[in-house]
Amino acid sequence: SYLCVENLELTAANYNIAIAELKRVYAKPKDLIQTHLCKFDNLAPVKSMTDVSALRRRQLTVQSHINALETLGVQQDTFGGLLGTKLMKLPPAEL
């Protein structure tokens, strides 16, 4: 992102130019949505119920992607069923 705006002088007038340029390069909602949905496919199972940090890390990772999808305008009911199915395959074996 720095390369997009590195030659702009730091002025109030260039602020809108910088924002427009960054949006032009990076604002690709369909790509972002697809990336977040693919992250659900790559979730690693937690090996043990006693590994609290791994369980918490997975929960925070899932919540982070859900929040990002909602921010991008994706309604939770459009991916919730798919996500539930994926998460049911990931619990530790002792469950």
Automatic annotation (TrEMBL):
InterPro entries the record matches: DUF1759
Domain of life, source organism: Eukaryota
Protein name as it appears in the record: Uncharacterized protein
Protein's organism: Daphnia magna
Organism taxonomic ancestry: Eukaryota, Metazoa, Ecdysozoa, Arthropoda, Crustacea
